[in-house]
Amino acid sequence: MPRPTFKRILLKLSGEALMGAEPFGIDPATTAGLAGEIRLAKEAGFELCLVVGGGNIFRGLAAAAKGFDRANADYMGMLATVMNALALQNALEKQGVDTRVQSAIPMASVSEPYIRRRAIRHMEKGRIVIFAAGTGNPFFTTDTAAALRAAEMGCNALFKGTSVDGVYDSDPKRNPGAVRYESIGFDRVLNDNLKVMDAAAVALCRDNAIPIVVFNIREPGNLARVLAGEGVATMVGGE
Question: Is the per-residue pLDDT at 155 higher than 60?
Answer without folding.
Answer: yes
